[in-house]
């Protein structure tokens, strides 16, 4: 894969016989990654991140150092998208003290028609736009309650046709023109919006029940 190191965009489309996404996390210049129609992939995990091949600076390992846009579309059998974790190595105690930095520049994530997806990672600190559509399980959003409040760069949250989603919090602390689009959420009963302190007399979230 060394000949791919200078690629800035990769699109894997309709690779229906592929059961595993190739290792891409070490590509230093990759900015856009499109994974569409990979209908036999069931898991995104360690082989995707390629931690052992990623660049290091001191005790920090950086995965997908330049990635800005990531799309997962029509991955029918995808059930899990795992965190990037550094596995202990009995012969190298230094690994235990190393830090893993994932998606440090990722600004846009789209997850469309991944019907069976039940888990997703939480390392999206620079995210500006998140779009999720046609997810039958609410579990991919399970990490959002804790992490949305730390997404200070988030401008747009778009969630469409997720009929099993019951509740979702949404941060609104750092921008005046953040956008929220919720369509086709037939089970939604609670929406929490955190307003700028200047807009409210207390720090409590504005909560709307439907």
UniProtKB/TrEMBL annotation:
It comes from the Eukaryota. Residues 2-38 form the R13L1/DRL21-like LRR repeat region domain. InterPro entries: LRR_dom_sf, LRR_R13L1-DRL21. This is R13L1/DRL21-like LRR repeat region domain-containing protein. It comes from Erythranthe guttata (Yellow monkey flower). The lineage of its organism: Eukaryota, Viridiplantae, Streptophyta, Embryophyta, Tracheophyta.
